[in-house]
Amino acid sequence: MDELNTDISSTIKDLTQSLVVQGENSQQLLHYLFIVLGILGVILLVVIIVLAIQTILNFRSQKQQREQFTQTIQMVKEMQEHMSRPMPTLGGSDALSLPGMTLTQEEMQKLAYDCEELGAKIDKHTDRPNNSKKVSELVFKVCTALGLDHETAMLYFCTAMVYDAGFLSVPADVFRVDILSAEERKTMKEHVSQAEAYLHFVPKQCLPLFIDAATKHHENMNGTGYPYGLKGDSIPHVARVIHSAESFVSLTSKRLYHRIRDTQSAIAELKRQPGIYDGEVTDALEKVV
Questions:
Q1: Does residue 73 carry a pLDDT above 70?
Q2: Engineered SS bond to 184: which of 40, 166, 180, 220, CB 3.0-4.6 Å?
Q3: What is the pLDDT, as a whole number, of residue 95?
Q4: Do 151 and 66 lie in a common domain?
């Protein structure tokens, strides 16, 4: 009987110790679980904070871009309404209007906003702050000085925001070196052949104009340009206007590959190369800068 009591006591003791150990293990496991949950909670909180900050920054950036573009549109309207000086006429009438490309006010506004958005992406990718804004505003001024009708000038203005869309196909680091290798120069030149892929948002009736601007703005009047080696009037008018405007903006802006020039020096450089730039466009540009 005593042995039985001893066995029972021993069994109870073993069970008690086992339960105590299990309880301690459970508490330890629960402790670790709380630690893991705490860490996950902190990580989640950090992620939420980062996303919130990013959202705020993106909102501010978009708001700033919209405000800048609203100012640009207002500038365009004021120029169209108040520019009163006599305007020279072009040698040919074909460039004065673009038949078949009429857009409603809403369509034009949407096109302009879409172009502004893409232009901002191009500027960021190529590390050229406000390049699309500067070139497009100058193109509009040149169009007005050349006597183009308002709608044509607005379409040219829109094309000038996205003429370098093909650069989005070029690795961003290529734009951040001052001396390009032969392979990098080849890649840069190929951007004109990649541009059309980024112009899917353009209304069908306007797409040929945008393609001309994006693929032929490196053609030279003497036929030495690329990619087609076009010459003189065979170069679309919009491409000739953008060529002069973008070169002027480049010369008067900070670039890795040249010093900044003043207005007079930049104009002189364009005029020094009549085989490259359209003389009539350059003359009009000189009047508005």
A1: no
A2: 180
A3: 44
A4: no
Q: Which structural domain range is residue 30 located in?
A: 1-72
Residues 6 or more apart whose CB falls under 8 angstroms from that of 211 comprise 195, 196, 199
- Mark whether 114 and 21 lie in a shared domain: no
Work out how many domains the chain is built from and give that number. 2
Which of the listed residues 51, 72, 93 is the one where a domain comes to its end? 72
Rounded to two decimals, the pTM is: 0.71
Q: What is the pLDDT of residue 32?
A: 73
Please tell me whether residues 136 and 111 are part of one structural domain: yes
How far apart are alpha carbons 72 and 11 in whole angstroms?
A: 90
Query: Is 206 part of any domain?
Result: yes
Q: Which residue has the higher pLDDT, 116 or 22?
A: 116
Claim to verify: residue 14 and residue 141 sit in the same structural domain = no
Whether residue 110 sits in one domain with residue 53:
no
